[in-house]
Amino acid sequence: MMENLIGSLNGKTATIGIVGLGYVGLPLAIRYAEENFKVVGFDIDQSKIDKLEAKKSYIEHIPSDAIEELVDKGFSATTDFTRITDVDAIILCVPTPLNKYREPDLGYVLTTVETITPYLKKGHVVSLESTTYPGTTEEELMPRLEKSGLTVGEDISLVFSPEREDPGRKSHSTRTIPKVVGGQTPKCLEVGMALYKGVIDEVVPVSSTKAAEMTKLLENIHRAVNIGLVNEIKIVCDKMGIDVFEVIDAAATKPFGFVPYYPGPGIGGHCIPIDPFYLTWKAREYGVHTRFIELAGEINGNMPAYVVKKIAKALNQDQKSINGSKILVLGISYKKNIDDMRESPSVFLMERLRDEGAEVSYSDPHVPVFPKMREHSFELSSVELTPDKLNSFDCIVLATDHEKFDYDLIQKNAKRLVDTRGKYRNHKDAPNLSRA
Question: Within a domain: residue 224?
């Protein structure tokens, strides 16, 4: 059965099922369809299915034209998981958040696995792309899948291949970002390689699913630790009256041994704020205390509080306090030029300001209405930036430096402007400007 599946994957006659049609799953569905695979998308959110059937996108950086082309190529989307029997490959792209104790929450993954298991058949390959701790595929997925009566490595294949999507990045695409694949058995790896090599330019095999799971964590922990370092350096530079951005740019001229990372109001997205805690949690099982990783998480997590202090200091110049002040936050997605709000430090900043008694508003050209979120709630819409509107706020905080903002307009009309991104680093003499 596995040889038949490898043949159909190589011949692009296999049907690909993608579970979870969000920032990871939808681009992957488009990529398979581009290579003329038949693709079936699964999601529990009926509103997504309705939009896809209407050939409309719900993700800003994916145009509706791409959805129209996807559907015209035969793509179908459904909430009916009995259709798992219609596909040959099942790729899981569901969330892996943290719970309120900052511990891994595998609820979405395990519920999905239990949902698809009754419909598994011989020859199926199941690939997990959701970020998780080393051992998840072997310890959690394999025994659940084998409840179907099918044996992993003989009847069905099981692989882990971590997603590497980076929304908004134009220099790389789903096709050009190398794909790491680990199989539960050598035969599983062979199937996994066939699953991805027809749509990804470079597929990188590793020895096990655990190695693939750890690879993803290392990638993002590397970023979290370096961002934590530069955020700490920013605080030190601020105390010393040194421009941290000048220092970083100067250090980056070294042609070896240095990679520039830039500070901000915290870290966000679906990976960097979350992945380190997956490893620290699992490491405790082995009696290892990951102090370095946890310290970086502590520094990054405290950055919104640091920014609030800088806002208070800026308002003090006008003999005002945060309590009762009107404060506008510019940019609430977790990074520039996208609409992704997951774990955005801007939202944590807004909550802290609200708790301090501020009247908080926001402006974001990519997020017209504050979305419904599991742990955050604001009944707000994006403020249009006009001279009069800007001047009506006691303080404006640049949290996410979107290219669509008119930075000259903002600086000229703000009473007080707090820059967390170094966008105004060349405006040192502006009397209304503070850096955070």
Answer: no
Residue 253 has which token pair? 């001229």
Q: What is the pLDDT of residue 435?
A: 85
List the domain range (segments joined by +) for residue 304: 233-435
* Crossing angle of helices 345-355 and 303-316, rounded to 10°: 50
CATH number at residue 205: 3.40.50.720
Number of domains in the chain: 2
Q: For residue 177, give the amino acid letter.
A: I
The answer to whether residues 264 and 381 belong to one domain is yes
Tell me, yes or no, whether 244 and 160 share the same domain: no
The reply to whether 122 falls in a domain is yes
State the DSSP string of 158-211: EEE------TT-SS--TTTS-EEEEESSHHHHHHHHHHHHTTSS-EEEES-HHH
Q: Are residues 242 and 184 in the same domain?
A: no
Q: Hey, which residues are catalytic here?
A: 271
SS3 418: strand
- C-alpha to C-alpha distance for 194 and 93, rounded to whole angstroms: 18
* Residue in 121, 191, 117 with CA at minimum distance from that of residue 153: 191
Task: Single out the residue in 180, 213, 246 at which a domain terminates.
Answer: 213
Contact 299, 234 (CB under 8 A): no
Q: How confident is the model at residue 152, as a pLDDT?
A: 97
**Widest distance between CA atoms in the chain:** 75
Residue numbers in the chain where pLDDT is lower than 50:
none
What was the pLDDT predicted at 271?
A: 83
pLDDT score at 108: 97
Cβ neighbors of 65 (< 8 A, separation 6 or more) are: none
- Please check whether residue 228 lies inside any domain of the structure: no
- Quickly count helices (H) and strands (E) in the chain: 16, 13
Same-domain status, 179 and 239? no
